[in-house]
Each structure stands twice: as C-alpha cells, then as structure tokens.
Amino acid sequence: MAAERGARRLLSTSSFWLYCLLLLGRRAPGAAAARSGSAPQSPGASIRTFTPFYFLVEPVDTLSVRGSSVILNCSAYSEPSPKIEWKKDGTFLNLVSDDRRQLLPDGSLFISNVVHSKHNKPDEGYYQCVATVESLGTIISRTAKLIVAGLPRFTSQPEPSSVYAGNNAILNCEVNADLVPFVRWEQNRQPLLLDDRVIKLPSGMLVISNATEGDGGLYRCVVESGGPPKYSDEAELKVLPDPEVTSDLVFLKQPSPLVRVIGQDVVLPCVASGLPTPTIKWMKNEEALDTESSERLVLLAGGSLEISDVTEDDAGTYFCIADNGNETIEAQAELTVQAQPEFLKQPTNIYAHESMDIVFECEVTGKPTPTVKWVKNGDMVIPSDYFKIVKEHNLQVLGLVKSDEGFYQCIAENDVGNAQAGAQLIILEHDVAIPTLPPTSLTSATTDHLAPATTGPLPSAPRDVVASLVSTRFIKLTWRTPASDPHGDNLTYSVFYTKEGIARERVENTSHPGEMQVTIQNLMPATVYIFRVMAQNKHGSGESSAPLRVETQPEVQLPGPAPNLRAYAASPTSITVTWETPVSGNGEIQNYKLYYMEKGTDKEQDVDVSSHSYTINGLKKYTEYSFRVVAYNKHGPGVSTPDVAVRTLSDVPSAAPQNLSLEVRNSKSIMIHWQPPAPATQNGQITGYKIRYRKASRKSDVTETLVSGTQLSQLIEGLDRGTEYNFRVAALTINGTGPATDWLSAETFESDLDETRVPEVPSSLHVRPLVTSIVVSWTPPENQNIVVRGYAIGYGIGSPHAQTIKVDYKQRYYTIENLDPSSHYVITLKAFNNVGEGIPLYESAVTRPHTDTSEVDLFVINAPYTPVPDPTPMMPPVGVQASILSHDTIRITWADNSLPKHQKITDSRYYTVRWKTNIPANTKYKNANATTLSYLVTGLKPNTLYEFSVMVTKGRRSSTWSMTAHGTTFELVPTSPPKDVTVVSKEGKPKTIIVNWQPPSEANGKITGYIIYYSTDVNAEIHDWVIEPVVGNRLTHQIQELTLDTPYYFKIQARNSKGMGPMSEAVQFRTPKASGSGGKGSRLPDLGSDYKPPMSGSNSPHGSPTSPLDSNMLLVIIVSVGVITIVVVVIIAVFCTRRTTSHQKKKRAACKSVNGSHKYKGNSKDVKPPDLWIHHERLELKPIDKSPDPNPIMTDTPIPRNSQDITPVDNSMDSNIHQRRNSYRGHESEDSMSTLAGRRGMRPKMMMPFDSQPPQQSVRNTPSTDTMPASSSQTCCTDHQDPEGATSSSYLASSQEEDSGQSLPTAHVRPSHPLKSFAVPAIPPPGPPTYDPALPSTPLLSQQALNHHIHSVKTASIGTLGRSRPPMPVVVPSAPEVQETTRMLEDSESSYEPDELTKEMAHLEGLMKDLNAITTA
User: Fold this and answer.
1) What is the DSSP-derived secondary structure letter of residue 1348?
2) What pLDDT, on the 0 to 100 scale, is given for residue 1336?
3) How many angstroms separate the CA atoms of 1318 and 1307, rounded?
4) How far, in Å, are 876, 880, 898, 904, 1105 from residue 901 at the CA level?
C-alpha cells in the first residue's frame, strides 16, 4: 500500500509540475502576485489562477477486530501544504489529547488497540478526511466505514450426519457476517486442509464432495478474531459404504438471493445428494452456462458456482439443476449487481464577477441511483433562493457575492459507497475581464461580462427607470438612454436587483444593444425588490441609476392540489374516488370539481362535489378511466391533482360470440368455428367458451364442453350417424357465462363417404320454364359413395355463368326467380364438396311470354326436407370490397340495401361470406357467417388471388350471392426450400457439374432468384460455404472448376421480394476421379483452370480463345478444304448444266412459277451476303435478349417441334463420322453422308440465317405440305428453300458448352451462297439427360460472357419440302467423288443457269485472291 501511495504521489507531483510549466508559458507579468493568491488591483494586472488542490489518497471501508490496529489512509496535495483533520460521524476528532488515535505525517489516521464491546463501540463508524488551505478553502474526502468484528456468536453449528461413499455432505457453521473471514475448520481437532474436493463456502459452511472413508471423523469450526479462539460444537460425520440402491434426489444446500458490487467475487451455493450421485448444471435466464470454457465461471466442489470479478451483465436469475439419471430437481436464486457512484461529468473551475449567476455541473451514475449533495469549503450547501439544485444534480448560485469564493464539491452516495469531485470558484473584480470558459459554466444572463474593456469615456446613468408592469411573479422595467449618449444604439444594459434587506444582488442583461427594457422573472409575490440599471459601452460599465423600489403584487390565494387522490372500482359500472383537503387551502374551500375521461378518448366530463368522495355510476364495464380533482375557493379554481387511472370491474360478456359456423367432417364429428364477441361487449378478459349441443330430436339432453379463451374452434366427436345436432356457443369471463348464440344445426353423414375427389355429374336435370321463373329439378349422382355437400346452379341468358346459386345437398329442386320473359336461358348444375365442384350438367329453356297465363303452381319432386322457397327472395348485398391487410388476412365489407340508410341491423338476419381461390383448380369454397357488415378472413395463403361474395339470410329467406370482389394477399418470404435438388456431372468436363432443382412448394410470391451454397464440409458454418447466385426463375445452374474426386455438398435457397426462404437439405455429390473421354466422339483438350472466356471485343476478331497464329493456321486449313470443295462442285455443276434437256427446263420454269411468291425462295442471286470467312469484319455478334418467359429447363438449343426443326450437323474437323443416336420423339438417326444424299436426292443443305427476323423469336413450324400438289413437292424441291423457319441451330464452341442460364451471343449472318459458308451448326441434344461431346472451336463461334439463354438463328435451307425425316448428322469434310456426285445430280435438277455459274466463277476468283493474300501474310 505504501509503495502504491508513493507511486501515485510521484505521478501527481509530475503532473503538477507539468501543469505549472504550462501556466508559466501562458502567464503574463505579475505571476508572483497570482501565485500568492492576491487579486490584481489594476486593469492591466493578470488574474488569479486556479490552485491545484485535491486528494492523492482517500480512506476506504475497513474491517477490523477488537484489540488490533487500523490505519485509514489520507493524503492531499496543494501549495502550500494543506492542514489535515478527521471527522468521525460528522464531528471533528480532537487528536491532540487522544492517546489511541494519532495523525500520521502524510495525513493518515492511526488507531491503536481498537475498542469494541457490546455497549461501547467508540471506534466503529464513518470517517472523513478534511484538508484545509487558509488562503484557498477546504475540501473533504469520501466517507469510509470502519467495521469492527463483534464477539463470535454461532447461529448454527455442525450436526452429526452420515454420507454414502461417493456422495456429497455439508457441515453448517454460521457466525456473524463480519466474522466469516476468520472461520476455519478442524477434523479430529487438527486443522483441515481445503482442496478442490473439500471447500469452505463464504457463509462458513463446509462442503465435502465425493466422500471417502478418510472424510469420516469429528468436525468443528473455529473463529479466531483477535481474542481467544471460539470453538463450535463437535459433530461426527460417518461415511457409509455404497448401498447400490437408489435414493431420492434432494438439495443439501440451495442458492439464495445475493447482492454483490461490480468487481467482487460471488459464490452461488448449490449442493445435492442422492443415489446415483447427481451432476449439477447451471442456467442463467433460461440459457445454459458453460463453466468449462469460461475463465470467470468455476464449478466448485459439490456443484456451487463461483463468478469472479462480477459485472453488471452477470445480474439475473440463476437455476441450479441436479440430475442423477432417474430424476431432476432445480432451485433458483436472483443475483443483484450494484455499482458504486461514478462521475460522468465532474464540476469545472469557474471565473465570475459579483452579481453573476453560475452553474456547477455534476453528472453521476451508479446502482442504486446515487443521491447528490453539494459542499462548499467542507460545509453542506443548503438549497435556498440563491443556491438551487437544477437538472437533478447541478448547483446553481444566483447573484454571486465575494464570500461565495472557494471550493465546491459534488458528493454522490448510494448503498454501495460514495465519491466526491470538486471545483474552484474565483470572483474577479469588475474591471478584470473573465478568461474564456466553457459556455456551460455561466448562465445566459451573464455572458456579456466576457468582453474585454478598453480605455475611453464611460456612459452616464440611464434615465427615468420605471416599472411599467408589475405582477405577482415578474416585473417589467423600462428606461431612457443616458444623457451622455442620447442615441444609445451601441449601449447594452445590466439590471441589478435584490430583495429589500438582502445584500446578495443579482443581474439581468438586455438581449441586444439599444434595447431599453427587461423583464425580471421568478420573483416572489408581495415582496419588495430594489432595482438599479447600468449602461455599458465598449470601454466598460458606466454609472448606476438611482435605486428603484418596487413591490410585487400579492398572489391570489387559490387552493393547492387535493392530496391523497385515490380511485377504486366499486362495480363493473361504477368507480369511487376519494381525496383530502388541500394543504395550502388559502381560504375556505367552497366545492370540488371531479373530472373523468375514458382512456383512448379526448372528451372529459366533470361533476361538482361538495364532499371528499364521490361514486360515478353508469360507466362502461371493464374500461379504464382517468380522474383528477380541482378545489375551488372564492377566488376560483386551484391547482389540479395529477391524473389517477383505474379500470372498472369485469363482468359476464353482454353479447354472444360471432360468426358461428358448423362443418360436418364425417359421420361422427362436426367442427365448430366462431369469433369472439365484439370488444365492447366482452366486459373482461375472455377466459373460455362454453359449447352446448344436443340432438335436434331431444330438446333436453344437452352436452357441455369448455375450451380455452384463445381457442376459436372445436371438433365435436363421438356423434351418431345421420343425426341432426343443434349447437350454440357462449363466452366466459372470470365473472361467469355470457349470452349464447342462437342454435345452429347440422346433420352428420349417414356413412363416411369418399371426399378425396369431386362428386360425379348429377344423374338427371329437368327444367320447366314459366314467365319470369324456371323450376329446376334434379336427381343426385349415381355414385352415392362420394360426399355431396350441395349443388351449384348457374344460369344466364346465353351463358350459365352470369349467376350462381348454391343449395343444400338434400335439396332436389329450385325455382330461379326474377327472369326476363321470352328469353333463352342456359342452366348448369354441379354437385360440390370440400374438394371442389364436379362435372356440370347443362340444360336450356326459354321463358314464356307475358301473355301466357298457363303458369301453374310449382310442383315438388321428392323434396321432403325442403320447405317451399319464399316467393320474394332478399336482395343480395352490394358494394362488396376486399381490403388486403397482410399476407394471410383480408377484410370483406359490404352494404345491404334492404337495411335503413344508417345501415344498422335490428333484426335476426345474418350474412354468409364465401371465398375461394382458383389455384389449384376446383378448390372448394369456404364459408363463414357474420352478423355485421364486415368480416375478417384469416388463414389465407400468401400472394394468392381470392374471390369473395356475400349473401344475406333472414329466417327462411336468403338472397343470391352478391357480385364477387377480388383481392390478392401480400407476398411472404418462401416458407419451404427448393425441392428435387439433383447434381450431375457434365459430360466431357469432369470439373463442371450441373445443379437442377424445382421451385419451392410454398414460394409465397414470385421467385426472383436462388442462391446455391456448396462446400466440401457439410458441418461448416453457412457463412463459410461458397455462394453462387442465380438470377430469375431458372431451375438449373452450372458450376465449374471443382476439384476432382472430391465430395461436395449443395444447398439451395429461394428468394422473393420479401426475402430469403429456408435452405434445402444438403445434397452430396462426388466429382469424377479423372477427366476421361467425355462421350462417344473425341473432344479438344481441357483448357485448364486458368482459362477465362474472353469478353466481347477481345484479341481474337471472332472472340475465339485461340492465339492469333492458331487462328490463322486454322483459317487457312478450313478455307483450303472449302475452296477444293467449291472447285469440284462448280465443275460438276457446269457439266450437269450442259446436259440439261429442254424438258427439264420446262419443269424448272413451272416450279419457279409455282413458288415465285415465296419470300427467300429464289436462287442465290436474290440476296448477296458477304463471305463469312474473308470478310469477317462484317460478322455481327449480337447478344441474345431473354425471352419474355424464358424456359427454365436446361437445353443447349430450343427443342424442335418437328423433324424439320432439327439442324443436321457433324464434327467438321473429324475425319471419322461419329454416328449419334437421337432420342427425340423416338426417331433413330445413324445415317452417313451417302445415306443422307440418297434420301434427299440433292446436294448438302445450305444454312442461311435470316437477319430479317428478331433473334429472340422462336422458330415457326413448317406449314403442312399435305395441301400442296404431290408433283410439286417432288419436282420443285431443289429449286426453292424450305419454308422460313424450317431449321433452327445454335452455335456452340467446343471448349464451353452452356446451360440454359449461360448462353452464347449468336452470330447473325446475312444469307449466303451455300458454298461460301463453312459454319457447322450444332445438333440439339434430345433432352437434358443426353450431352453431346464437345465440338471443335471455329473462328465463327465466339465464346462470350455466359449471361443469356441460348436461342436459335432462323435459317432457310435448300432441301426436301414437306418430307418428314428424323434428324441426322451431316458431314461435309471434302468433296465427294466425281462419279458419285454425278450420279446424285443426275437424279435431280440443277439450280444454276449459265449466267449464274459465270458470276460464281468470278466470285471464286476473288475468293482465291483473298486466300493467297492471307497465306502470303
């Protein structure tokens, strides 16, 4: 302690000298005078400085024992050195004549041989250190409590006990709380060594856990508190062998409520015993505590919990749970954590002038909340008119005088401790300017004193100072400018005022220059004040005006607030209010006015009362009211009391539950639904509902069932088959049962019929038209095993959907009223149940004309259960509106034209609301009854369109259904994960996988995207998984560059506009071990993980990933092969042209005439596109936009709609023809080149993409050719192209095959000559399970960003028109043999005229020149 005190003193000394150096650097001449504390006497002299004066060490609470010595430390710093004195219990100690107490040189108090007895305790108490410097003032330290431990007294002693080996035992030893630290234990009169198994609790109790034979013996506790030791009784502990039988689990010691201070240690005792031996676990506020990994929480022997260095967060309820496998018991205790006072803001030093107002600020915290008191120079500050506590803790001093100088201390104190902080106040002469200070130190009334003064003439006294307005609490003063400055625009004024006979003067300043009035507030009534006014200019303050004596008006003697206002509920409709006479009656009270108001309203009512109590009757039941009282005397109303709130007593409900409805579930049960009574009629908390039901045939046999107040439905089971029951429901409060609903009846089914499907069609339907009505009769469906809950009759002129009426399942006829005469009506009848409506049966009828008088009375066909309908049905409700409230709630409102204008229901009518959604189809209507003009429909599905209609029923009369209203519930986050998640490896690319899934079952809105999580560790935290976002409603995604032969786990999460849904279960997939052949055909080597697809506009002109050199070589090879093919074909064409006969020319001419109107069906001279290879800069690379509704199923190309939609293709760089099997529509295609040529009877098909069509449009089907002449389809096939759109293709590069979500921009090419295009389109895969091997890269096929769906390019092809054939690969590796080609062309007509060949030869020459230029380069 001495070392710590010395270090703190050294630190404080260093801080002081640093502070002094700073002051020296800023101090003007005259510092010596300031240091001595003397005030400067001239304007130019420097001001006094604040003197450091504070405690280095303050006393702390101390525990001592009788006869020992105690030191209470205290040390203060100041220049000069302070005088130290001590107070005990608020009184100064005379240490000069005290032989046991002496003052040490550093200021500490030493007490030798502490005296303490039952009747004499001179040393115990509260001590305080007081430091004084004569020229400065006095400061006091915090208060320290000295506790002297009393004589040992045992409140409980150890008792003989036994314990089974391995179990826990405790031995009590409770002494005075101040002696607990001096307690120790002995076993067999030898000191007992404590360890992890044997511990002493803070109460002194001994706990032995896992008892062994060595623990047996005699135990006693010893208290050594300075005098002779005090021994408890001895008790024997016997250790018994394990009986190997179970015993009850009991607590030997339970935790008890504890209070601790922040920073202390606490032990919550908990010891249990039983066989098997129990284990102890702890919980805090329902959360399990981890005592193994925590540094602050330790589980002691027996199960007690020790918490070291307690913090405020440790407060709460702790549960000790003991469990031995057979049973579990628990105990709990509250831990309260307190905090000593701490300063959030300490007072600061203040300079001021006399007459100023100042505020010392002090902000403290602590638990419990500390109280604050102020001390000036060691003496308590007593609040008065001039010393006020403001804002709870701040000290305000008004009208300063010289004697107010000194040290002010803020002392905060609570049950835990106390603390002090101080500041110095220096009052300067008026001619000394105040240095800049924090603005909070001075009030707004005194800030004008801060301006420095300069030399010059001062203003004279203001003239004609008068009190222009005198009230009880304020006075308004006005004056004229001084004679020395008649204008006075730059003058400010200070008004000094004081109570007559009081020396303390206060000041109030004008708010801006030139103002010549001020209002002095907060004065006392009927009090004399003295006022004087001084003017100031830039040079300083001038002369003071003559004193003005003014007396405030006496205050009207009004009553104060009535004390002890109380209100209590006397009954469910009355409240009694009592109060007492105001303390400050100020005259005789004439009467009182009692004001009261219902909570939630703004209409206050009042009643005059002459006594001190009043009972207000006629209030609403179980409703909260507020009350206040105002006393009146002859002068008028006094001060109102604060409001007092009280609620009337509850009562039985005054109305029945609402919307009672019945639903027959089967032959033995009926479901009852209802809504609570209206809130205004509940008259209390609904505690339950009473359901009464009986058979309709027996009125007296009533069964009752009670359900809870939160339950709004009940299934009544165990009923008889085919029996009608009556039901009614009443609400209950604690006061009793309210009125019940009317009896509502329903009949159980004769048998448990099938209701898993809709009813079948009714077996017959008959209509009998009259003039304004049609009688409809029917018989039920032949299949009687399906539940029929009713029949829906639809009718209308020309259409049966104009109106719909639903009738009971027992009914066999219905009369449709209010029809037009001589009109043709179509009528439909459908049976329905809870699954939906069945198949309709249609009939039509024409109502009779008006002149027909043959209308006869209705006849009833087999309807023993149905009363004759009322001839005047009720009008249906109108104005049905659906207001969406949430994702599952819609409010339905309507109007009833048969009600009066105020729309009040005064009869027994009720309304039936029905609603349904059309998704899925044939959904059933749900119904509910209402007795008001609105109904709250709950339990709806999110983001679902519902239709609602209402009908009204009064007695036996019912209306038709109203016009329907529609409403779509709000969206909700998906409540189910995506389903059917599958992962497959991409063929030929073992590092790439494809994830497929289906949307969530409960999407609850439009799915805007998915998130795929994948990881190699299924137990990793979800934020450690890799995330792949998927935008839109796609149902597949491709993930690349995975590690080979590694198990991956995949989860998918769907999102909509409301947020993310739950994640799917993890799906495991192991990537292949090595990259083998990816399919039947060969493929290019894998580009490796470093390869990145080039963006648009990369190095390669066509977006190819190959280097420029590789591109040129590939270009040369392809062009060379193509040129050879062109030369051979052209020679063959010339040869064939010369052999053309005149008969063939006629046939060709006829073919041209037949097809001349077809666009794009002429020969190649109709359009002349650029050459795709040589003029590659004209190639358009257009990204494909998403179609309005993209197909979510993964395909590489759009699925063809017929065999002509399949584009023949091959591996153009492969010398071997790899035959492929296409499973599309079951066709097989294994044809080679010769087979294809033979089947077509023509040259290979030319690919001509149409740029005239938007790229995102799907390909149109070929019109059926069956309507064309057979001859034209055979003879003209080689001279025109297939109908537009007959072929679609999608260009894919070999190194990257795309799924539906990542597509390539399609190269749109102008229509070209068939021999000028070497583009090889890709054949579409037959379906998602089948994958093609990679195709070779070509400069035409760019690999772009993978952002869009793949779409086809429209092409026209010269081929067989209308011939249905399976898709097949086409190979154009080289020109065929001359003889074979000649045979092929002899069987068909040539499509080239001599002039066309001349042009083609010229074009070929240009092609060869460009080729030579490329190869030379």
Assistant:
1) B
2) 40
3) 13
4) 16, 17, 9, 8, 81
- Which tokens in the block code for residue 655? 């109305």
Comparing C-alpha atoms, which of 684, 676, 677, 678 is closest to residue 735? 684
Q: Mean pLDDT for the chain?
A: 75
For CA atoms 459, 461, 466, 471, give the dihedral sign: positive
Tens-digit pLDDT profile for residues 976-1034: 999 999 999 888 888 899 999 999 988 888 899 999 999 999 998 888 899 999 998 88
**How far apart are alpha carbons 1273 and 517 in whole angstroms?**
114
Residue 471: predicted pLDDT: 86
What was the pLDDT predicted at 1402?
74
Q: How far apart are the first and last CA of the chain?
A: 96
Look at the block and give the residue holding tokens 């979800």: 1022
Strands 161-164 and 235-240: parallel
DSSP structural state of residue 1303: B
DSSP 601-637: ----EEEEESSSEEEE-SPPTT-EEEEEEEEEETTEE
Within 8 A by CB and 6+ apart from 441, the residues are 348, 350, 358, 359, 361
Q: Which string of DSSP letters, residue by residue, matches 497-527?
A: EEETT----EEEE-SSTT--EEEE-SPPTT-
Q: Residue type at 1310? A: R
How many Å is the Cα radius of gyration of the chain?
52
Cβ 526 vs Cβ 553: under 8 Å: yes
Tell me which residue has tokens 């149409």.
1250
| pLDDT tens, position by position, 655-695 | 999 989 888 888 889 999 999 999 889 989 999 999 999 88
Residues 6+ apart with CB under 8 A from 1250: 1160, 1284, 1311, 1353, 1354, 1355, 1356
Identify whether 920 is preceded by a cis peptide bond (ω within 30 of 0): yes
Higher pLDDT, 1232 or 123: 123
Sign of the C-alpha dihedral, residues 510, 512, 517, 521?
negative
Reference 698, options 667, 720, 718, 669; nearest CA is 720
Nearest to 250 by CA among 223, 278, 219: 278
Pick 605 or 1198 by higher pLDDT: 605
* pLDDT (tens digit per residue) in 315-364: 999 999 998 888 888 888 999 999 989 899 999 999 988 888 889 999 99
Query: pLDDT category, 853, cuts 50, 70, 90?
Result: low
Evaluated on CA atoms 1352, 1355, 1358, 1362, the torsion sign reads positive
Q: What is the distance between the alpha carbons of residues 250 and 277, in angstroms, rounded to a whole number?
A: 11
Burial class (CB in 10 A: 0-12, 13-18, 19+), 106: middle
How far is Cα 588 from Cα 557, in angstroms, rounded to an integer? 10
User: What CA–CA distance (Å, rounded) separates 705 from 716?
Assistant: 9
On the CB side of 1300, CA atoms within 13 Å amount to 22
Evaluate whether 1208 touches 1367 at the Cβ level (below 8 Å).
Answer: yes
* Residue 149: its H or E element: strand 137-149
Q: Helix or strand or coil: residue 1171?
A: coil
In 3-state terms, what secondary structure has residue 1138?
A: helix
| Three-state DSSP state, 94 | coil
Strand partners, 283: 288, 319
Alpha carbons 1195 and 1225: distance in angstroms, whole number: 16
Query: If you average pLDDT over residues 1086-1110, what whole number do you get?
Result: 41
Tokens 């119904």 sit at which residue? 927
Judge whether 648 and 618 are in contact, CB under 8 Å.
Answer: no
Q: What is the pLDDT of residue 1377?
A: 45
CB count in 10 Å sphere of residue 1177: 8
DSSP 973-1012: --SS--EEEEEEEETTEEEEEEEEEE--TT--S---EEEE
Answer whether 357's CB lies under 8 Å from 449's CB.
Answer: no
pTM across the whole model: 0.40
